[in-house]
Amino acid sequence: MNITNYKDHPGDNRYVIFQFLIEEHADHFQSLLEDRRVVFERHFDEDEEPPKTLFGISKRFNKEAVHCNYLTYAKYRKPMITNKVFKYALLIFTFSAIALAFIGYFLSN
User: What is the pTM of this model?
Assistant: First the structure.
């Protein structure tokens, strides 16, 4: 089971394959790789369902490629809690619980 969007190349373990389902993400990833002068090979696989864009990158560039991958997903990710009222209510509740825990700890001594 692979929970990331990259894995070792099935035929040559010297390479890592990154896969993107959204073309905009793939374009951004490619621009980041080009900025860092990472050598890669891009392939659009329309035979699979859903179609995906694949990048083959040598493992000697693995650290830079994974960093570019994280930056790509950071740019396009959606916030976990989208409702601002609920988000700030949750923060206030959390900090209140921590404050009460500290108060209870110091009053018990």
Answer: 0.76
